[in-house]
C-alpha cells in the first residue's frame, strides 16, 4: 500500500511540476517581453513616478517561487495519496483476517470429516457395522454446509453494508431499512 501511495504521489508531483514550470516559463517570457531598455533612457514627466524592476531579480524570484511550489506540491500529493490509499489497506487487512478466520473455521470440521471417513473405510474393509459412522459423516457434512453458508452470509452482509444496499439471496424484494435478509439460505435454492 505504501508503494502505491508513493507511486501516486510521484505521478501527481510530476504533473504539478510540469504545470508549475509551464506557468513560470510563461511568466518569465512576459517579464522579458515587458522589460524594454528604452524606457530607462526616458526622463520622467514632472509629477509622474516611474518604478523600474530589474528583470533578472524577477526571474530569480520566479525560480525560487517555482522550486518552493514544486516541493510543497510534492509533499501535499504524498500526504493526499497516503490518505487515499489508507482505506484500501484497511479493506485488505479485513479481507486477510476474514480468510484466515474462515480457513481456521473450516479446518477443524474437515479434519473431523476426514477422520470419520477413515474409520468408515476401515469398518467397511473389516466388515464391521458402519451405519453409526455414516450418520456421523452426514452430521459432519451438514455442519460444514451450515458453516460455509454462515460464512457466505457474513461476507454478503459485509459487502451489503459497504454498498449501503440490501439484497436477498432468495430474489424477493427487501426493505431498504433492513440490511439483512429474513429468508433462509435453503429458501433461495
Sum this structure up briefly.
This protein has helices spanning 2-34, 37-41, 55-126, 131-163, 185-188. It is mainly α.
Task: Reconstruct the topology from this structure.
Layout: H1 2-34, H2 37-41, H3 55-126, H4 131-163, H5 185-188
Walk me through this protein's architecture.
With 189 residues, the protein is mainly alpha-helical. It is 78% helix and 0% strand. It contains 5 helices and no strands. It has helices at residues 2-34, 37-41, 55-126, 131-163, 185-188. Helix 1 packs antiparallel against helix 3 and helix 3 (55-126) runs antiparallel to helix 4 (131-163). The longest helix is centred in the middle third of the chain and has 72 residues, at 55-126. The model is unreliable at 172-180 and 184-189 (pLDDT under 50).
What is the overall silhouette? rod-shaped
Largest sheet: none
Q: Which percent bin holds the helix content?
A: over 70%
Report the structural category: mainly alpha
How big a fraction of the residues is strand? Answer: under 5%
Distance between the termini: 40 Å
Note poorly predicted spans.
Answer: 172-180, 184-189
Total DSSP helices: 5
Order of helices and strands, N to C? Answer: HHHHH
Radius of gyration (CA) equals 36 Å
Average pLDDT works out at 75
Structure summary, number of beta strands: 0
